[in-house]
Amino acid sequence: MKSSKGDLIFTICNYTFLTFVFVITLYPFLNVLAISLNDATDTVRGGITIFPREFTLDNYITIFEYDNLITGFVNSTLRTVIGTILGVISSAMVAFTLSRADFKGRKFVSTTLVLTLYFSGGLIPGYMLMRDLHLVGTFWVYILPGMVNAFNIIIVRSFMDGLPYALQESAKMDGANDFSIFWRIILPLCTPVLATIALFIAVGQWNSWFDTYLYNGSNPSLTTLQYELMKILQNTSISSTDPNAYRGTEGIEAAKNVSPESIKMAISVVTIIPILIVYPFLQRFFVQGMTLGAVKS
Question: Which sequence ranges are marked TM in the entry (predicted)?
Answer without folding.
Answer: 12-30, 77-96, 108-127, 139-160, 181-203, 263-282
